Amino acid sequence: MVASSVGTSVRSLHRAFSGHSITLSEYVKTQRLEMCANYIKAHNGRLNLTEVVYRYGFGSSSYFSTAFKGHFGMTPSDFKKSCSLG
User: Are 86 and 44 in contact (CB under 8 A)?
Assistant: First the structure.
């Protein structure tokens, strides 16, 4: 799907990432996590995190929480609270 949307073959896309320290799937996950954070910020932390999980294609809340904390260094709940304080 990614290759098609950028107008290249799957092989070419994988080749483009082969020389970097991040895989294509890690890059996509990182971009999705960034979109989640931006969505939470845009709503000033006033939304249900389950909505965010499914809107951005994460299979479960626990996986999302682990991935989010690994990327941002805080849980989605703590991030949400910090957005509602501002």
Answer: yes
